[in-house]
Amino acid sequence: MPTPTIEHVEVFCHRVPISAPVSTSFGIMTSRPGVFVRLTDSDGAFGWGEIFANWPAAGAEHRARLLIEDISDLVLGQRPEAPGDLWHHLDRATRIRALQCGEWGPFAHVLAGLDTAMHDMDARRAGLALWRHLAADGDAPGPARVPAYASGIHVADGTRTLPRERARGHRAFKVKIGFDASEPALLETLCGMLEPGESLMTDANQAWTLDEALAFGEATAGLPLRWLEEPIAADSPDEHWQRLSRAIPHPLAAGENIAGAADFAAATASGTLAVIQPDVAKWGGVTGCLIAGRAAVAAGHSYCPHFLGGGIGLLASAHLLAAVGGPGALEMDVNPNPLRDAFPGADPVPVEGAVALSDAPGLGIEALPPEIARYRTLALSRSRSQAGT
């Protein structure tokens, strides 16, 4: 039988106002956006993906229009033999378009969401959960359980949030830092609250210069931090990262702001990062992150998928981690987000620091939850007949 063609592209934007902003060292989120994409082929099979849209504030609606008005003509009518074929095709076909407007990031985000949708469709067609479909033998034992950690915690809120998340079942916690000079003392307090078997990680969100990062490392040298994430800008010279890895006693982590197979390969080979953190909604989708994750684990690093968005991307991250394996952990944002929690399986209760994955086909998502319809800001679609292909 001929391979089915992609016949329909749909994208749905949502935005949830929040009473407690989510703070990072570089800015504050005053709403939680979500961009979800659905692909349907000529056999009626479908798949769901998620497109990164946390930044800038108007990014969600922009990416939806970018998909429908600038990229869908390259999607509709395609006959991918394997789910990753579409991503490789689009990566080549959109290069000049992205170059022309200087929007490498938004193009990569859209392609990532499309790739996840293709993998969801492929696994659904096979009748397998995505993590099983990605596993090398295809019949790994289940149900899968993956280690997880509580994330999105402002360091100043740690003394209140850590006990709450421990009660929920978490045994690892990541706090956001990079705000002021009081943080070494706050971290010492939080480390003193840890119980046996628990760990604390930190994320500076690219807050510091090299000298500031070195000073932080010196001030916290005696603390048992599991890792220090993005202490300097992700695109800092490699010699800066090398110097940090030699001088700071804490393992370094990064990856959410790395894009491109060559850059991930270089980051893995350099030896400066102990933890590699690609984001399935920002670059590569399932195809790219699977390659980066497996390469990281093979090189002796931890693969810990970064994610701070809606339910589809979180589920895709969990399935990727289950398929890749290794000593990684799933990032679970603990801030309220209906665009995550309304999805079946996307708000799991950790048991001793690990969460279980569903064995439902694909990502286990049939449709967008009706509870999030009131947050919708935009819905666009395009079919093959409209595209004239």
UniProtKB/TrEMBL annotation:
SMART domains: MR_MLE (SM00922)
Keyword list, A-Z: Lyase
InterPro entries in the record: DgoD-like, Enolase-like_C_sf, Enolase-like_N, Enolase_C-like, Mandelate_racemase_C, Mandelate_racemase_N_dom
Pfam assignment, any one: MR_MLE_C
UniProt key word rRNA-binding: no
Stated name of the protein: Mandelate racemase
Keyword Lyase: yes
GO molecular function: lyase activity
